[in-house]
Sequence to fold (542 residues):
Amino acid sequence: MSVRLSVISQVEQVAKEQKKKLAPLSDDLVLLDSGLDSLCFAIIVARLEDALGIDPFSTAEDAGFPVTLGDLIRFYEEAGK
Amino acid sequence: MSSLWDSVGDAGRLPERVLWGAAASVTLGDLVHGSSLGGRLGELRGRSVLVATSDQLTAALALIELDGIARRLVLCPPDLPSEHVPFVKTAAAVDALVSDWDAPESGSEGIGSFVRCSPRLTPATSKRDEQHETEWILLTSGTTGQPKLVVHTLLSLTAAIRGGRTSATPTVWSTFYDIRRYGGLQIFLRALLGGGSLVLSSLQESMGDFLIRAGAHGVTHISGTPSHWRRALMSPSAHRISPQYVRLSGEIADQAILNHLRGFYPQARIVHAFASTEAGVAFDVGDGLAGFPASLIGEKSVGIEMKVEDGSLRIRSARTAERYLGSHGETLADRDGFVDTGDMVELRADRYYFVGRRGGIINVGGLKVHPEEVEAVINGHPKVRMSLVRTRKNPITGALVVADVVLKAEPDSGAGPPAALEREILQLCHQALPRHKVPAAITFVPDLTVAASGKVVRHRA
Fold:
């Protein structure tokens, strides 16, 4: 599975498990407006670390935090290179 | 000891200083002749007052007015489950309720007076004659789920603040915390005693809206947990504030979040502080590095002594709390007056680093989780023999809860994880526990190490 698909599928899966209504996904979607809270993001990041073997939040020094879904996907794509 | 209101006055400039809530605001000058308590301040003299409001501004006003008047102020955090209210009432001998509700809510029956509090001030009728050294009671989470009641005084709460320099330019403080928690209360008191204003957060407001509001009021100093800050940096409105001072407390500040903040707010001084409800404010670290210099241990010059014993940080100072209420003899400090923070530290080179909490207590975004209560739920599943709940480091919430589970019999499926069973266990947890206590992952393991005591061995942090 591509990094993009992995990220999106975890976002959808965690939203379902945590019973959160997910906003329509697009690269421009602001993560804090997605319907997911910090706990959801924490779980998504943990699952992606298991699936992809990377945690760009802890390794990226000055990359800044992702703001949109597109940022989040690029965050993982860059870290995986 | 002068009262909070006297100290506010000592800092001066009352008409220019503002407390901004999400829906209303009040200048400190308005409080000179005005009251948020509808002229009923006199009724609360000498009482043990539960301050339980839905709005932070209302609570702030009540606290300013009641210090020195009430015998006790019990600060009710916004998320206190109603089933714990009777315990709090009894333990703190509450005989008055101050709230912004229209009428007392269930659980508050039997409390003597009900005084409504509102940011719409009315002329103050009774004279302020402060006679009490008011006890401030803060609630913190206990092992059994029941809150612990921690006794402070204005003196212990402000010992880390007094004697600090009052800045020449007006300071506008803000905090992501609720001021009914120790970390937020510190910022509230810093603003009041240091001559500043304060932008209060609101549960009803999104992170983005709060940042925009704080920015519009020209916030200069702002504080929160590392989890608060990670969330703030994910907001498109993070650039709407440009603070001179950024403070982190309440959780371990890792190097990544310190670097992110330095990158995002290059003009700001980034400080991480160690403080807890029981131990008070211990120290600030301003060198931009995680952990703290080993030289702080054993130093006495700043009115605080720290030592490391059995791996945990212990603190003795005038800033620690006095005692617990209703704890059945549980003591807060040891015989020498040191409070064990329960925070485990490790010395690497000339710096101490926080490595977790004693007893495996997990801090999920500032919310404490005791592993035993989660294990009890998991062990309630008929196919589970035993379980071990532990922490997993996380860059968003600092930590997550995960569980190792030993089954009574090998799962039938042979290879692969028994996904259906995992779902069943998680469902059980979701029914019995708040979301942050539900394991983010379950690993089925063949066995767990059991010590001679018969207890599952918990690895230190």
Q: What stands out?
A: Helices of chain A lie at 3-17, 38-52, 56-59, 69-80. The mean pLDDT of chain A is 91.
